[in-house]
Structure formats: structure tokens, C-alpha cells
Amino acid sequence: ELTVLGKAQEFFQICDLEGKGFVTRQDMQRLHPELPLSLEELEKVFVTLDADGNGSLTPKEFITGFSQFLLEQIALKNDMVQLSEGETACPVRYEETMTGDEDEEFQFSNFMDRLGAAKVLDDETDVKQLWLQLRKEEPHLLSNFEEFLVRIFSQLQEADNEKNELECALKKKIAAYDEEIQHLYEEMEQQIKKEKEQFLLKDSERFQSQSQELERKLLSKEQELEQLVQKQKRLEHQCTQLLSGKEETKVENTKLKLTNQELLRELERTSHELSLAQQQLQVLQEEASRLHEEKEMEVYRVTETLQREKSGLLKQLDFLR
């Protein structure tokens, strides 16, 4: 166990050549030349050791977990040795029953599995033909070809991991940008709603004040008219009484006629002023209606402008995606 612990510490130093103090997925691939494990198997070991899923291993996590992994591999190897020793008494061994072609097929498949080629290549036919050709015709070049494949597949695996990390980072940035756009859109909606309410409140207060002032003037004119009408009725009643009674002097009769004419003129003047006041009220009501329509058009233009800005932001967001 002490030897395994020391070996795990040595492996950690191999992975952490930069002295970062932790090991990433790419760092784990540096153990490929040191261990009889494929890149895919090393990836599985890293996932197993990364219990918290943060994408990195501390020295404690790596050494403890990898020591346990090595001990399990040693135990498994011992079991396989014992099983192999128990099978030596068999008259026919598996290797002896395997033909030359089957042995080459098995070795090539095992080699490609260690490289993790299934993740990269859809068709291994060309690589297999070249491997078989070198094995038969140029066996001294086979090791160089295998080392070349190891480097190529290692670089491809690293590139795939980097691509996955970049895609994850891009998705996070897009999500953050979407959230920021949504926040800005909500703020714009709140601001427009607030300004719209203030605009409507000011217009409503102004029109209400003007309407109350006109109503007050109209009520005052109506009261004056009512007083004049009552005064005319009293004078007419007095005139009727005078005519039905004894004859008055011409001076008194003329005086009453002049008074009546003056009252009629006053009545006409008051009626004219009342008519003018009603016309002014109608003009103000039409102005209020026109301003209300303009206000609705302004609100519509502001809403339409917001929709265009929103559409532009959404197009920019789609373009960024």
C-alpha cells in the first residue's frame, strides 16, 4: 500500500507538470504512456475520482482515489493470474485454438479500444488495412505507426475536450446575455409604463381643472340669468297690476316701458354671454378630445418604437447565438 501511495504521488506530479496544485481532464491524459489504459479508460477514471463534479482533482482526491484504483487493479490482476494458473491443466488453450487472422483481429481491436478510436473514427477499415500491411510487410515500422496513432488520437481527444469546454462556456455566456437582455427589456417596460401613467395623470389633472373652471363660470352665468328672469317676472307682474288697476300717469307708464326695455337689453346681453360661454365650453371639449386622441397616438408610437427595439434586440440575440 505504501508503494502504491508513492506511485500515486508520482503520477500526480506527472499530471501536474505546471505545479497548479490540481489535475484536469487534459492533465490526466499524460498517464497514457505510463499505464496500460486507453484515453477513454483514463477519462472514466477521472470521472470516477471527480466525485464533486467540479472538473478538477485536488492532490488529496487524486492520491487517495488513484491509490484505491491501483489497489483494485492489482487485486484484479492477481485474480486473473490465479485463474490463468488454474487453467493451465486444460489440454487445449485459447491461444492455441485461435488462428493467425483471429489473433491479428483481436490485437488490432484491443489496440483501437485503448486509443478510444470509437469516439473519433466512424470507419476503421483504412487504419486496419494499413496496420495489417505493416504487420506483415514492415513489422519494424509497426511500433512507429502505433506511436503515431497514439499521438494523433491523444490530440484529437484533447481537441474534443477543448471543444466541449468552449461550447459549455459559450452556452453560459449566451444564458447570461439572455438574462441581461430580459432584465433590460423589463426595465424599459417599467420606465415606459411609469412615464405613460405620469403623462396621463398630468393631462387628466389639467383637463379636470379647466372643466371645473368652465362649469363654475357657466353656473355663475346661469344664476345671473335666473335672477334677471325673476326680476322681469316681477316687473311684468307689476305692469299687469298697473294696467288692470287705475290709470297711471303717462310718466309712470313711460318709465316702466323704459325699465322693461332696459331689462330686455340686459337679458339679451346675458343670453349672448351665456351662448359665448357654451361655445367656449364646446371648443374646450373638442380640444380635450383632440388632445386625448394625440395622447393615444403618442402612446401607440412609443409602444411601436419599443416593439421595434425589442425586435432588434431579439435579432441581435439570434445572431449571437
From TrEMBL:
Keywords: Calcium, Coiled coil, Metal-binding. SMART domains: EFh. Transmembrane segments: none annotated. One of its GO terms (molecular function) is calcium ion binding. It holds the Pfam family EF-hand_7. Residues 37-72 form the EF-hand domain. Residues 149-294 form a coiled coil. This is EFC4B protein. It comes from Loxia leucoptera (White-winged crossbill). The lineage of its organism: Eukaryota, Metazoa, Chordata, Craniata, Vertebrata. The gene is Cracr2a.
